[in-house]
Design goal:
The protein is α+β, with helices and mostly antiparallel strands. Helices cover about 45% and strands about 25% of the residues. The protein has 3 helices and 4 strands; from the N terminus they run βαββαβα.
Amino acid sequence: MLANFSIIPLGGGESVSKYVAKVIDIVDRSGLNYQLTSMGTLVEGNWDEVMGVIKKCHNVTRRLVPRVYTVITIDDRKGAKGRLTGKVKSVERVLKREVRK
């Protein structure tokens, strides 16, 4: 499964990089494949692993600020693996060129 999630800490000030850094540290230490983007984080793994990491990230952020807004988008394709990069490569094959990453 592939999940894209964003955790928005509310009430902790305008800059959120210190909260994002804590979340990414959790994701990185999980051992799951992931990709940080400017608007969220993509994580690949099985349901329990991915949801467990997202839950941990949400809970850690919740302890730091008065309110947390978490958005999750899931692509759960039976038997699919390596989709974090595979979906991009599939589009590049169709285009017959690399795209910006």
